[in-house]
Amino acid sequence: MPLHKCFSLLCSIKQVTGALINAFLQIDTDEEEVITFRDLESYADRHNLDRVMVKKWRDLFDRGNTGVVSLSEFCQTLGLKPASIHSQRQMFVRQVPLNRSQIRVVMATMSRAMQEQIGEDVFFMTRDSKTSNEHLADRIKRHLDKRFGRTWQVVICQGSSWASFTHLPETAFFFQLDKNVYLIWKTPD
Q1: Strand, helix or coil at 141?
Q2: Which pTM was predicted?
C-alpha cells in the first residue's frame, strides 16, 4: 500500500477512535465507567442516530453478553489504556449550554459557576467594546487578573486552532461566542 494511503487510513482510524471515545464519555454521564444498552439507546435517540449503533456497540464491546460496556472492555477492544481515557475525561465537558445560549463551550476544566461568570463577563465586554481583538484580549485578561488573581492567559482566534498548555487545575475555559473562539486559562505564578 502506498505511503499516502497508509497515512490516510491511519488518520481515518484516529478520527473513528476519537468519535467512539467522545461518545463513551457523553454516554457515561455518571462517570462510573460503565454504560448500559439503555444508555446507548437514549444516546442514539437524542442524537437522531440509527438504533443499529446499539447492536454494533454490543457486538464490538460486549463480547461476554453482560448487557453493559465497561471502560476496560471498551479500551481493550480499541487497544487503548484506561488512563488515556481518564485524562481525556478531565478535559471533556458535556456540551450543556450555559445560561447565555450564544456561548458554545468547546472545552472546560473549571466549575460551571465560573464558566457562567467568565462567559457573562466576556459577553458584555464584547457588546461594550468596539475595539480590536488585541485590545479585547488585553481587557479580558486585566479583568480576570483583577477578579480571580493574576496570571490569566487569553487568546482570541477564528477558525481552527490547536493548543498545548500548562494551567492550574480547574482554570481552563475554551468557548465560542459569535465568530470568535476564546481560549482562557490560568498559569502558575
Answers
A1: helix
A2: 0.51
* 161 neighbors 181 (Cβ within 8 angstroms): yes
Assess if CATH 2.40.50.100 describes domain 3-91: no
For 103-186, the fitting CATH number among 3.90.230.10, 3.30.310.50, 3.30.740.10, 3.40.50.720 is 3.30.740.10
Residue keyed to cell 467522545: 22
Going by C-alpha positions, the residue among 188, 107, 184 that lies closest to residue 150 is 188
Which pLDDT tens digit goes with each residue over 80-118? Answer: 888 777 766 665 554 445 677 888 888 888 888 889 899
pLDDT tens digits, one per residue of 155-170? 999 877 777 778 888 8
b or e along 97-114 (b: 16 or more beta carbons within 10 Å of the residue's beta carbon)?
Answer: ebeeeebebeebbbeeee
